[in-house]
Amino acid sequence: MSTQVRCAWPQALVLAVVTLASAVVVEAADRPNIVLIFVDDLGWKDIGCYGNDFVDTPRIDALAAGGLRFTDFYASGAVCSPTRCALQSGQNQARIGITDFIPGHWRPFERVITPRPTMALPLATVTVAEALRASGYTTGYIGKWHLGTGARHQPSAQGYDFAAVINGPHLPGRYRVQGRPELKPKPGQYRTDFEAELSIDFIK
Fold this sequence. Notes:
Elements: E1 22-28, E2 31-38, H1 58-65, H2 80-89, H3 93-96, H4 110-113, H5 128-134, E3 138-144, E4 162-166, E5 176-177, H6 191-203
Parallel strand pairs: 3-4
Antiparallel strand pairs: 1-2, 1-3, 4-5
């Protein structure tokens, strides 16, 4: 399957078709909604719209059929924080200094061969959310953030109007929500389903 779409990033209808683990959801009355779904540790051919006939992903496949499906990729840091850094900033993560997951592996030899990684996405970094906000969008981030801890380095400081986030690795079951008490999934509820509910509520 191939989709022909003219795209002017970031003001395009973007769909990175993967399982829901963290999502950027934006809405504006006179612009198309943008839903960007991003997940750790998912291979490009792990879902139906990319050729997987073993695992059923009908809803994501339907989104792909009506959106934009990427077929060419480059990842220079295929791990939590570096990938998120590149996606949020549009820059190679090495330029910003987030070259490992935060807070890093801290292996004994690491300090000898690599510079100490940056521990948060710098506040001066212009993110996709800030670019979209400047174009009149309302922006939201739901899921795993992993680009800094503490109130100073949350999505609200990087252009997001709403956020319900957790930080990894070894994540607790509670979500930090801007201006509200912490939320957590119902007993027995999958976290992905909980994040989907939060995303739908934000869009509405």
